Each structure stands twice: as structure tokens, then as C-alpha cells.
Amino acid sequence: MSFAAAKVLAFESRRANEMAELIRINGGEPFVAPALMEVPLEQNQAAFDFAARLYAGDFDMIIFLTGVGTRFLHRVLATRDPEDRFPEALRRLTVVARGPKPTAVLREWQVPIAVSVPEPNTWRELLDAVRTRPEMRVAVQEYGRPNPELLAGLEAQGRKVTAVPVYQWQLPQDAAPLTGALQVLLDGGFDAALFTTGVQIEHFLAFAGRHGQGDQARTALGKLFIGSIGPDCTESLKTCGLTPAMEPSHPKMGMLVREAALKFAEARQQRA
């Protein structure tokens, strides 16, 4: 069972080509319109302030939320200090990794990981994973936007929390794919839509809103079969008034596309 030539909209950015190929492999006709790009903060003074405190011994624990953010933070700090100073400092802390991507970066640096957050790697699992830890002075590497639920949850555990913003998400400079996706969507040209992060729906609806078509875009998306990569993404979709038809058994892009194709085919059979 597959998408059976259905037209599938996706908003993946860094892995756009891979997403398109996965949709094709699973029988769909892809239309991938990147909805965001990761942009380093132009003035990253917060990162340098964090580093000064880190090297002074002000933290007991650091939480890494994304691999891209982990690596970029290192690059920023290496503009002022030796490259090995940051990894060396991390080896003296309790290090928490949310998922496989920051884990891979930290292992590359030979930094021991005290806490690995289990799937689906949301802020809820993270809070549960550190609940019994004794460390009170915590730094959190943010990933494009603040996570107020996570920060509030850590503070509710009695911890003193410092957020470390590393990069932010913006709309892509080339908006042509989004313009095309919006037009095809409003013309009823898609059968399904796949989301790999909640920021995609926020950006797409904001983009549509700039063109005076935000409500129409939301209504059109609501008529599609929607796949969400996991709980965090689903929360964002629901906040925007959209309820996904499925989440994959594991929060991986390949699993999302494969299982969405199966669910889509089942839904189509039931309607027949």
C-alpha cells in the first residue's frame, strides 16, 4: 500500500531532496517547499556570556536539544577560544542529550552523556529523564525558538535555568517554492501534507497570511491527510487548528513517510 500517485506537500528544508525521494519511493508525487532556514543569531552575546559562566564553573548540568545547535554553539565559541576548550568544559558537567542528533555530536567530541532522553524526545520525556537528578544550575541550548514549557518545568523542579539561544528560524530567502505550494494548495491540488517540525506550519500560515490568504490556507490544509512526525509537531498543528491523521511509530522522517503512505492508502480504501 502506498500514496498511489497522490500529490504530497512537504516543507522540509535541510533534507528536502531526501524527503522528495522518500515520497516518490512510497508512491507519491512530491511537492517540497522549504518553510524555514536555520540562521545564526547575528549578535550572539548570550552564547559568549554563557561560555564565560561555563568556564567559571557556574553550571552543574547542560541540556543539548539539537545537533545543529550543539555544533554551531561550538563554532561560535571557537571564534574566541581554543577549539577544545568547550568540549573539555563539558566533560566536567552532567550532559543531557535530547535525541540522536546531539548525541552523535557529543560522542564525536568524546563528551560523556549522563542522560539520554528517550523517544519521542519531547520536553516531557526530558523533564522525566532529569527529574531525580541532583544538579540545580542548568543551561539549556535552545533550538530556534524558546521552549517555555521546558524552562518552566525545570524551574518547577527547583533548578536555576539559563537559556542559551544559538540560532533562529526564518523564512527562506527564496520564497518561490512556498508561493507555488500556496497556489496549488488553494487550487485543491494536494491530497496529503507531511510536517517534520511545528515551525513549518507556523511559517507557512504566516507566509500565507502576508498574502492575505492565511484563513484559506488553513481551511485547505484541513481537508488534506496530514502526517506529523511526533507530539511536539502535533501540538503546533493543533494550535493552528489542524489535527493530524497520524504520527509514526518512531519520530524519524523515513518512518513518517512510509507509515503515512500506509495510513493514507487505508483511509482512501475506507472512503471508496
**Secondary-structure element string:** EHEEHEHHEHEHEHEEHEHHEHH
Total separate domains: 2
Biggest sheet overview: 5 strands, parallel
Low-confidence stretches: none
Gyration radius over CA: 20 Å
Query: Which of globular, elongated, flat, extended, rod-shaped describes the shape?
Result: elongated
Number of helices: 12
Number of strands: 11
Straight-line distance between termini = 15 Å
Strand share of the residues? 15-25%
Q: Let me know the average pLDDT.
A: 94
**Secondary structure category:** alpha/beta
How is the largest sheet built, in terms of strand order? 6-5-4-7-8
Helix content: 40-55%
Q: What is the name of the CATH class of the largest domain?
A: Alpha Beta
The CATH topology of the largest domain, please? Rossmann fold
Give a structural overview:
The protein is α/β, with parallel strands linked by helices and 272 residues long. The protein has helices at residues 16-25, 45-55, 67-77, 85-90, 100-108, 123-130, 148-156, 176-186, 198-210, 214-222, 231-239, 253-271, and strands spanning 7-10, 29-32, 37-40, 61-64, 94-97, 115-116, 137-141, 160-164, 167-170, 192-195, 225-228. The strands form 3 sheets. It has a 5-stranded parallel beta sheet, with helices on both faces. It has a 4-stranded parallel beta sheet with strand order 2-1-10-11, with helices on both faces. A two-stranded antiparallel sheet has the order 3-9. Helix 3 (67-77) packs parallel to helix 5 and helix 9 (198-210) runs parallel beside helix 11. The mean pLDDT is 94.
